[in-house]
C-alpha cells in the first residue's frame, strides 16, 4: 500500500459529480468552490494508469499534518503549507488538462515486453473501446439486471473454488496428500516417480478395503496356513471301488 492525496468535492458538487455521462471517462475533477482533501492508502489494483506528469511534494509533511488534524484537538486547524501547495498544483494540473492527463504505455514507454504484459495491455485497450460504447447504464432496469449478473458471477466464483479444491493441482499442495503418497510408495503400490505398479492397479479394481485385501492377496495370507510345529492331519485313505460281475 502507498498513500495518495486527492481532492474531495464540496457539498454543492456531490449531486453533479454522481451523474456521470459514461462509465469510462478520463475527465479530471475540477472543483468549482471550496473543496477538501484526504490521504488514502491505495493498493496496486486501485491504480489504472501512470501519467506523464510529475509533481514534487513533501509527502512526509503532508501525511504528518493530515494525521495531526485528525485529532479532535487540532481538527479545526488550517491545512499546512505542504498540503496547500499540493492542492494548488493538483488544481493547476486539472485545469490545464480537463479532458485527462496523458498516460504512459507499459509496453512502449516503460519497455515491459513480457508476453503477459503485452496481452494485458492489448486487453485493456480493447475493454476501454468497448466501454466507450457501453450505454446500458441508461437502462431503467439496470439495478435488477446488475443484481442478476452479480449473483451469477458469485455462484460462478464459488463453483470455480470447489472445482479447484477437487483438482489434482489443489491436492498436490496438501500435506496429507504427500503423506498418503509416501505410504503407497512404502507398500509398493507406486514407485518413487509416482507410476502405479501392479499392486496399485489391482488395488484400484477392488471397491472396498483395497489396500488390506491387496496386501493379503500378494502375501498369500488367504491360503491354508501351516503353523510351525503342527503337523496337518493325514488325509483319510480312499478305498478303491471294486466291481464284481455275478452270473446272471
TrEMBL record:
<protein>
    <recommendedName>
        <fullName>Exosome RNA helicase MTR4-like beta-barrel domain-containing protein</fullName>
    </recommendedName>
</protein>
<dbReference type="InterPro" id="IPR025696">
    <property type="entry name" value="Beta-barrel_MTR4"/>
</dbReference>
<keyword id="KW-0547">Nucleotide-binding</keyword>
<feature type="domain" description="Exosome RNA helicase MTR4-like beta-barrel">
    <location>
        <begin position="27"/>
        <end position="168"/>
    </location>
</feature>
<keyword id="KW-0378">Hydrolase</keyword>
<keyword id="KW-0347">Helicase</keyword>
<dbReference type="GO" id="GO:0016787">
    <property type="term" value="F:hydrolase activity"/>
</dbReference>
<keyword id="KW-0067">ATP-binding</keyword>
<dbReference type="GO" id="GO:0005524">
    <property type="term" value="F:ATP binding"/>
</dbReference>
<dbReference type="Pfam" id="PF13234">
    <property type="entry name" value="MTR4_beta-barrel"/>
</dbReference>
<dbReference type="GO" id="GO:0055087">
    <property type="term" value="C:Ski complex"/>
</dbReference>
<dbReference type="GO" id="GO:0070478">
    <property type="term" value="P:nuclear-transcribed mRNA catabolic process, 3'-5' exonucleolytic nonsense-mediated decay"/>
</dbReference>
<dbReference type="GO" id="GO:0003724">
    <property type="term" value="F:RNA helicase activity"/>
</dbReference>
<dbReference type="InterPro" id="IPR050699">
    <property type="entry name" value="RNA-DNA_Helicase"/>
</dbReference>
Amino acid at each position: 500500500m502507498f498513500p495518495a492525496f486527492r481532492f474531495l468535492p464540496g457539498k454543492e458538487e456531490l449531486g453533479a459529480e454522481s451523474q456521470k455521462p459514461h462509465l469510462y471517462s478520463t475527465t479530471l475533477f475540477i472543483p468549482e468552490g471550496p473543496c477538501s482533501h484526504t490521504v488514502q492508502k491505495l493498493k496496486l489494483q486501485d491504480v489504472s494508469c501512470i501519467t506523464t506528469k510529475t509533481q514534487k511534494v513533501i509527502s512526509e509533511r503532508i501525511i504528518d499534518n493530515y494525521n495531526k488534524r485528525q485529532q479532535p484537538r487540532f481538527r479545526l486547524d488550517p491545512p499546512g503549507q505542504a498540503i496547500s501547495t499540493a492542492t494548488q498544483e493538483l488544481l493547476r494540473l486539472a485545469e490545464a488538462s480537463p479532458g485527462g492527463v496523458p498516460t504512459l504505455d507499459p509496453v512502449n514507454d516503460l519497455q515491459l515486453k513480457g508476453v503477459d504484459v503485452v496481452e494485458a495491455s492489448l486487453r485493456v485497450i480493447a475493454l476501454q473501446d468497448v466501454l466507450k460504447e457501453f450505454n446500458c447504464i441508461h437502462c431503467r432496469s439496470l439495478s435488477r439486471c446488475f443484481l442478476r449478473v452479480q449473483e451469477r458471477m458469485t455462484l460462478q466464483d464459488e463453483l470455480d473454488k470447489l472445482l479447484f479444491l477437487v483438482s489434482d493441482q489443489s491436492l498436490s499442495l496438501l500435506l496429507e496428500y504427500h503423506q498418503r503418497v509416501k505410504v503407497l510408495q512404502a507398500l509398493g503400490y507406486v514407485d518413487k516417480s509416482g507410476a502405479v505398479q501392479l499392486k496399485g492397479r489391482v488395488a484400484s479394481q477392488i471397491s472396498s478395503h483395497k489396500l488390506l485385501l491387496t496386501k493379503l492377496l500378494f502375501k498369500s495370507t488367504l491360503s491354508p496356513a501351516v503353523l510351525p510345529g503342527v503337523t496337518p492331519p493325514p488325509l483319510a485313505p480312499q478305498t478303491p471301488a471294486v466291481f464284481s460281475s455275478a452270473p446272471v
